[in-house]
Amino acid sequence: MSAGHHTAEPGAGKSFTFQDRLLADAVRVYEQHSPQPIDDSEAVRLANVVPQEQKGDGQGGDFEIRIIRRAVHMPVAAEMRKELRRGATAFRIGLAGVVSLGLLVGAGAARVAIEIGRPADPGVTNIFAMLLALLGIQSVLLLLWFAVTIVRPHVLAVGSVGGLAAAVLSGAARIRGDRTADTNSRSVRFAVLEAVFSVLSRRHVLIWLTGLLSHGFWLAFNVGAVLMLLILLTTRQYTFTWETTILSDRTYSQMTHTLAALPGAVGIPTPSEEQVAASQWPIDPAASDADLTRRAWSGFLIGCLLIYGLMPRGLLVILCAWRWRGVRRAYRLPLDEPGFAVLQRRLDVDHRHNTQPGDAEVRVSEVDPVCSGTVDSTLQSRPPGDPVIVGLELSHDRLPALRDANGRSWQSLGNVDGRDALDEAVRELAASPSSASPLLVVAELQQTPDRGLARALTELRRAAGSNARLLLTGGDRMRRQGDGDELDRRIEDWRSVAVRAGYAPESVRATDLDHLTDASQDVLMQWLTQSPRQTVSTDVNPSDRAIALPRRLESVFDSILEEAGTWDAAPDVERQAALFRKIAEHYKTDEGRLRDFLIRCRIDPDHPPSPSSAGKWVQSAASGICDTLPARLRKSARWAAAGALAGALGGVAAAVLIWPPAVAAIPSWSALGASIGALTQLAGDHSRGDDRDRHGRAGDAETDSAQRSDLIRSAALYAVLLELQGRDESAITRMLDATFNERDPEDLRDIPTVRKWLEHVRHRFDLAITAEAGS
Amino acid sequence: MSSAVPVIAVVGHTNTGKTSLMRTLLRDTEFGEVSNRPAVTRRVEGANLLVDSRPIMTLYDTPGLEDSIALREHLDRIAASGRFKDDVAIIECFLDSPEAAESFAQEARAVRQLVRCDAGLYVIDARQPVLAKYRDELAILARCGRPIIPVLNFVASDQARTAEWREQLSRLNLHAVAEFDTVVFDEVGEQRLFEKMRTLLDEFSEALNILIEDRGRQRRKLIEASARIIAEMLIHAAAAVRVIEMRDGVPADGELDQLRNDIRDLEQKCVDDLLESHRFDPAICDADELPLDNGQWGTDLFSPEAIRQFGLRTGGGAAAGAMAGLTIDLMLGGASLGLAAGLGAAAGGLLGLGRTHGRRIIERIRGRRELRCDDTTLVLLARRQIHLVRTLLHRGHASMDRVQLMGAGDGSGSSESDCASRATADPLRVAGHDRSGSTRSPRLPAEMREARLYPDWSAVNGEVSRWGLSASRRRDSLESLAEQIRLHLEPPPHAATDWP
Rounded to a whole number, what is the distance in Å from the CA of A42 to chain B's nearest CA? Predict the structure, then answer.
């Protein structure tokens, strides 16, 4: 473990140590517990400066190295290193403590054990009792260790040793930590401790670490015991003996022989058969070779301790130390830890690179050589001919059957897709007897206007003369594919391409032919019969047929207020439907708006719903209106709910007025009602009818009020939608955007609040109308 | 590892999603510029796909082809003007001609890059009909003498004309077609794309194998990390507790708000972390749109509405009403004393545990109560995060939509528009879900119930215990909770069931 100070470029050119990884782990813990995010911009910058020769290593690859590099550059790193060094020192002190304790205990045990003999006769030692005392316990513990480690390793992980060590150390840490007044260094210390413990408590780490400690202790114990024995045997004289009550003499003789086999094999003197027999209590003091017997027994004793105590422990210490070292080297940061995973983006390797350094941006010429904006004067002077309609790269071949004011139908040239079709259309246009035919090019908004389309537009305009218009359709499909918010910009892109192709800005218009309403058809025809120049000169926006229609918003809002005044609790579905029917009735005289509304709901106004399709019908209505809402409102749950409700209830109300007999045939809301009931639930109702009594009063009032607010919002939305029908769809969305605000009060609890809010809505509606007329 | 790295040009008509494809393959939301307009990318830009920080593939983004009809005519004219060895010679002649720097400058960039690369990915907006201009583009690119893999983008859209395109492409003799939506991410689609490249680029098969393997590994890791992030947050939230004084039997308002804010902060951090680990900009979950930041929204975490949207029914009136998702946990005194005793016996009377429970008993004697998040709110928290991760797992890095936390358990968030607008645009499903799920009361997983008993497991209550028995139990609970969540993250969104 390197304890040295890491300077300018830590880790550069060398692989990171275990301590570096501990540091990175500690930084992670520290960040996780830190109340504020830590400024790591400098560390991230330095971490991302990779020396070229640096190679990724192991599974984690370079991401781990970046994490470590970032960690060592963090502001807290220096303090953490200090803390880690302190920890390493503490670990060494602890190890030294364990070793010295082992030595002392071993020596003490040997001192005590050698006195086990016959208490009455000092200097007489019971050899087998002594062996049992010195080797017995540690052998049992050794077997236990093997069992725990090799047979059932997981016992140890949750078992006592690690837990005990952790508890003792953490207790010490807590006491030390609590004394520190500085909270930052306290949390640094805690982070380091947690990181260390989280690493150490991993099973395979813990086994070798605790093994190192426990075998270290017993090794020291044995060393202490052997040393003490040597001292005692050198300086004092002991008589070794053995005795037994139930075992036979043979047993002892054999046991001695077996135990002595290994020590004897390495040349340590061991007692012979006769010596063993002679040593049985009581000893014959007059035995001739008492000295030799003593020496043999001493050798046997020391040999057993060395071979059966010291040697296995020593080997195991070496094994554990080697494994512990291996574990430390193999340790990799747990990269799936949340604290590390979130760094991914910040520590991304820079994978972008610019090629073709000399490549400047392609300059796309604004004026295409083919598309000059000037109008060919010779063509302009030609008399008007049959109006011609042509599709440009449409996704289907259907072109609307249009008739002009005189009842003449427009001649269709079909869908132009590709060089040959374009050439043919151009040829036909140019060959047309009366030339200068009014030309309507129909294109789809889903198409991105590109230079190819611009070229085709130009060629068509040139062939037709000046009176060419561009009609953009498919807005609804574009919205459905999720690009509704881009609609305005797409129209603008098309307009600018058309202008470059020589079209007048007013001769570009977006009308959805898929959902052509009566109103929009009228507007379309009006637009087609006017020449672009006329359009510019008139002040009135021709597209706003709706302006000519009588305005009913005020009276509708009055009836909303009136109706709301009659509710004592949350209105049930019947009353909700009644409110919407009342609103719809205001517009009964211009049925066009109701029909348009249905079209907006993606419902065919000529086909009344059947009971079987009711669910689908309501759903279509709800989602149709939701899609019409501007993105801002659509994303507000409240307004999305109001839109859905307005679509469903409003659609039904409009349908009832358009086809009273057909809808009357649907048995009293049963099919529609169920679907709408589900919808209103979404919109905030959950205490309907019988449920109500079972709920607490406070909660009831709350949901009632929320439900009423939702209903009023959707009613107002419905009214404004009806008022706006007949306009461009993008205009409707724009004006809804200006009229409603997602930050309006959420809770329209009482009549004055409702009145005030409706007043605001009306005011914003007026502003929107004015803004729209001005644009 | 072999040093051979395939170099691929991404070509296609303007605004079909070439830069989007780059972004999604690179997992880089900031590469280039993406906009739904023509000719946004005006220059060739390259980037490497990395495995362990080493480039394994180089991709080049090119400007879109726009006027292919005219270019094809031009090439035909060149072909007619002289004698050329082969098609590539015609292309080379075109690239040297003055037109390549003028009227066809944009197209020339793309064509030149393709000629320099090993292969080309031809990006197709599958929602578009097979128009003549696309056929012309393919004819031009076919002359470059490089293998072309058509990539059908936006296949997840319901307006995709996948079959039509496949039919037309096979007529043009292009059979190795990949379907890969850059907005709605599909890991299998990505793998298939690489496999198709491997088929066509035999000499780079080793690099592509490494890439495919790495992508799978990264994704598994990502799911694991996400599960851990969520589990961590849930443990914090479940263990969060405030000891409060009661006034006339109800807690003071400030206390409720305090806990509410704590829980919101936890969720906010979780959301940020999830977005970061999935390599999305945390800004796509706009703080302004986060329901947690501003209580007036209907999607407020604690509002009965939000809870109902997840098909849960609050336990009783108190939870539905003004308490808004919070309820007083009266599990005090006797219950916790018994628990403390039981656990204490088992744990040998561990100091930390005894201390916290001892304090709770004293609090109880002093007439204080504990306030915590109720089960329904916790379940809602869990489902929202799981839903978020499922959304992110199927979100291409080209996606420009915002992510919203709201959304029903129906998991419709895999669509290209964000889950919230889908959920509301499809109200019947949500409502139906509500009714069907209303009878079920949520049951917390055992790990979270256990977390309730350990105040020292939550950062909301102060420092999280890091050692001792409590910490090791916390670790175990966290792991098994994360494992359960992981299993719920993996199924595709439409097959997913609610958790818990």
Answer: 19
A502-530 b/e (C-beta count within 10 Å ≥ 16 → b): bbbebbbbbbbbebebbbbeebbeebbeb
Q: Which of A362, A418, A684 sits opposite B43 (nearest CB)?
A: A362
Q: Please name the residue of chain A whose CA is at the shortest distance from the CA of residue B105.
A: A362
Helix (H) or strand (E) holding A146: helix A137-146
ipTM (interface pTM): 0.72
> What is the phi/psi pair of residue A150, to 5°?
-95, -40
Q: How much is the average pLDDT of B55-72? A: 89
Does pLDDT of B494 surpass 90? no
> What pLDDT does residue B469 have?
65
pTM: 0.69
Closest CB to A681: pick one of B69, B431, B466.
B431
Range A601-635 burial, b when 16+ CB lie within 10 A, else e: bbbebeebbeeeebbebbbbbbbbbbbbbbbebbb
CB contact under 8 A, A369 and B103: yes
Q: Which two tokens stand for residue A162?
A: 């690690």
**Cβ–Cβ gap A679/B427 under 8 Å:** yes
Segments of chain A with pLDDT less than 50: 1-13, 52-61, 156-162, 181, 355-383, 533-546, 667-670, 683-699
Q: How many CB pairs under 8 A join A and B?
A: 290
pLDDT of residue B325: 25
Least Cα separation, residue A700 to chain B (angstroms): 7
Q: Count Cβ neighbours within 10 Å for each residue of B418-457 and write b for 16 or more, e otherwise.
A: bbbbbbbbbbbbbbbbbeebeeeebebbebbebbbbbbbb
Contact list, B64 vs chain A (CB under 8 Å): 450
- Identify the residue among A355, A366, A398, A709 best suited for mutation to test binding to B, counting B beta carbons within 10 A and taking the highest: A355
Interface residue of B305, B473, B478 to substitute, partner A, most A CBs within 10 Å: B305
Which residues of A fall within a CB distance of 8 Å from B309? 682
- The C-alpha of B86 sits at a distance from chain A's nearest C-alpha, in angstroms, of 24
User: Looking at residue B355, what is its pLDDT?
Assistant: 39
Taking an 8 Å cut-off on Cβ atoms, the answer to whether B44 and A355 are in contact is: yes
pLDDT of residue B120: 93
Question: Which of A151-155, B157-161, B183-187, B393-397 has the least mean pLDDT?
Answer: A151-155
Q: Which of B52, B214, B236 to mutate to test the interface with A (most CBs of A within 10 A)?
A: B52
For residues A330 and A319, what is the distance between their CA atoms, to the nearest angstrom? Answer: 16
**At what angle are helices B68-81 and A419-431 packed, to 10 degrees?**
100
For B308, nearest residue in chain A (alpha carbons): A682
- Closest-CA residue of chain B to A491: B37
**Confidence band of B194 (pLDDT split at 50, 70, 90):** very high
- Please tell me which residue of chain A has the smallest CA distance to B462: A33
pLDDT at A369: 38
Q: Is the dihedral of CA B347, B351, B354, B356 positive or negative?
A: negative
Nearest CA in chain A to B399: A482
DSSP states of A524-579 as a string?
Answer: HHHHHHS-HHHHHH-SS-TT-HHHHSPP-HHHHHHHHHHHHHT-SS---HHHHHHH
Distance CA B408, CA B496 (A): 12
Contact B7, B379 (CB under 8 A): no
The chain-wide mean pLDDT, for chain B, equals: 72
**Rounded distance, CA A240 to CA A269, Å?**
15
* Distance from C-alpha of A531 to C-alpha of A522, rounded to nearest angstrom: 16
Q: Is B159 exposed, middle or buried (0-12, 13-18, 19+ CB in 10 A)?
A: middle
- Output the pLDDT for position A275: 81
